[in-house]
Amino acid sequence: MCLVAFGNEGNNSADADDIQTLCQEMKILKQTMEQKFLFQEEEITHLKQKLNLSETKIIDENSPEREKSRQGRLLLHPPVNSSTAENVPKIAFSANTVTDHVNLGVHHTLVFGNAISNVGNCYHHSTGNFIPNVSGVYVFDVQIVLCSPGHELRTELVLEGKVMAAHYTGDSTHCSNGGGMAIFHVNAGDSVWVRVRSSDGGNGIAWESSFSGFLLYPDS
């Protein structure tokens, strides 16, 4: 509805035409706005439908039926626990108490004569050599306790004559400790041992010194 207020009668005809045109433009604008609002309502309805579908999908993924299907797959393909699998080799050792422990020369093998554990029987306590029967990646740990104040001792972990790690112990007014861990591949039948790298000749290795290792994982 257009409300028209007339003033001067001489201008009534022109004003009436202008007002009529304005009313038509307002009518067109109203129709355009109504169409736009209708389109927006349709968009909102569409988005709500998509949201409901998404919520339904999330619920389905966590439904009891999905968990039941998962349990069925586990029955067909049970997970393997490597700690209990019969085909996984078990190799580990730890030894202390070096038999020859004083005034050791260069490349003298440290024989850790007391085998605390020797799973797989690959450590030879009479020679100080670890000789595995399974190829794979192994973890080794060497700890040297030196009870010779003022003296020093350097040792090394050797694989078939190749130095894989080196350790330093000494330069203390009391007993000192040195060593470290190493991880590397060892073939079945290879020998790993600890030997003297250098010494000032006045060393005395304590019984607490140790040589340990275990199979991290075998070759596939």
TrEMBL record:
Protein name: C1q domain-containing protein
Subcellular location: Secreted
GO cellular component: collagen trimer
Chief place of localization: secreted
Record keywords: Secreted
This protein's record includes keyword Secreted: yes
4Fe-4S listed as a keyword: no
Residues annotated as domain C1q: 86-220
